[in-house]
TrEMBL record:
This is DUF2961 domain-containing protein. It comes from Actinocatenispora sera. Residues 1-41 are annotated as: Disordered. Pfam families: DUF2961.
């Protein structure tokens, strides 16, 4: 069964718990803590085997590390990861289900954990938690039937030390369980009078469950008048679901502006504005924001296809909307019947760089 959660806390199942980390790279029973070499070997030299010999891995510049390969049926219940913040946009997380040709999940590791700007901000949501100082936690339910392969690719110029743990359950997967997918896009800058793509090219049946935006403002004034639009099942120019404004979609109101306090951060189980980076009068000259909405109680279901966009609008003279040319990066999550992914943008170091 793929559904556990608090409602099933007392329910006994036939599932078997496993965990992959640098201390147990295969997840096999009784195989943890057996390393004789690793990043902690020098510190454990007086204690020996079993004393935190291999707590992390180092990924060379340009290299790909396999975090885990798991035979199913199983469900990943929790993924914990941490690395230095300078690597949050230069490490690319990919997850492939059931030996598909295209990974279903492909996104910078920081954006997958709602941390796109390379700076810490507390996130306290149901599927994603980010804790001091850069403790990334994913509670996305990730069922698969035959296999899962998780990798990290270092597209940066420096080696990255990564600590991680993949907690999963070996058990049957329900016939109607979907595979978790992501798509990443960045518009830097967004062309004038164009919309930013959040999801493109998705075909098949599924339901949409989450949006994270890392939004960098390139103009003065308010930036969030634009609408999010969900084009479902053959929608062309006009969508089935159309919001009323960016801050409205993320559960806020009136510019996220508390009178006397200005932009005010918040983090809740399903939506939040956890990050506001304010100008410092020197090199941080532009305002930057991070915000999420998770459609877990209110998934957006589609039968044949899905396209999601967001407008970037501010205000100009005469009470007219001003199309903006901002720096917008988006990560989208959805579940789908098919295991294979739908690629977003090409993820290169220059395209992802925060500057």
């Amino acid at each position: 069964m793929t559904t556990q959660g608090t409602a099933g806390m007392a329910r006994l199942t036939a599932g078997r718990s496993r965990s992959i980390s640098p201390e147990n790279p295969t997840g096999a029973p009784g195989a943890g803590g057996r390393a004789t070499e690793g990043t902690g070997a020098h510190a454990a030299r007086d204690l020996g085997r079993g004393w935190k010999v291999s707590p992390s891995i180092e990924i060379a510049a340009g290299a790909t590390a396999v975090l885990g390969e798991i035979e199913g049926p199983a469900t990943i219940r929790h993924l914990w990861l941490t690395t230095h913040s300078k690597h949050w946009r230069s490490l690319v997380l990919r997850i492939t289900w059931d030996d598909a040709e295209v990974p279903a999940i492909e996104t910078p590791v920081g954006d997958f954990f709602c941390s796109g700007w390379g700076r810490f901000a507390q996130v306290s949501s149901v599927p994603v938690a980010v804790n001091p100082h850069g403790g990334f936690n994913s509670y996305w339910e990730m069922p698969f039937r035959r296999s899962a392969r998780l990798t990290l690719t270092n597209i940066g110029a420096e080696p990255a030390v990564v600590y991680f743990q993949i907690d999963y359950e070996l058990d049957a997967v329900d016939a109607d369980a979907g595979y978790l997918h992501t798509q990443f896009h960045r518009s830097n800058p967004l062309p004038y009078r164009e919309v930013h793509p959040i999801v493109t090219g998705v075909r098949g049946a599924g339901h949409y469950v989450g949006t994270y935006l890392a939004w960098g403002v390139n103009s003065r004034g308010w930036w969030g008048e634009g609408e999010l639009k969900f084009h479902l099942d053959g929608d062309e120019e006009f969508p089935t679901i159309c919001g009323t404004g960016t801050e409205d979609y993320f559960g806020g109101a009136w510019n996220f502006d508390v009178p006397g306090s200005g932009y005010t951060t918040f983090t809740t189980p399903y939506l939040g504005l956890p990050q506001v980076i304010r100008p410092d009068g020197l090199y941080d000259s532009q305002q930057r924001f991070g915000m999420y909405r998770f459609h877990l109680p209110d998934p957006i279901r589609f039968a044949t296809d899905l396209r999601v966009t967001v407008q970037a609008l501010g205000w100009r003279s005469g009470g007219r909307y001003l199309p903006l040319t901002d720096d917008i990066a988006s990560t989208a999550w959805w579940y789908q019947a098919e295991a294979g992914g739908t690629p977003g943008d090409e993820l290169t170091a220059d395209a992802l760089e925060v500057c």
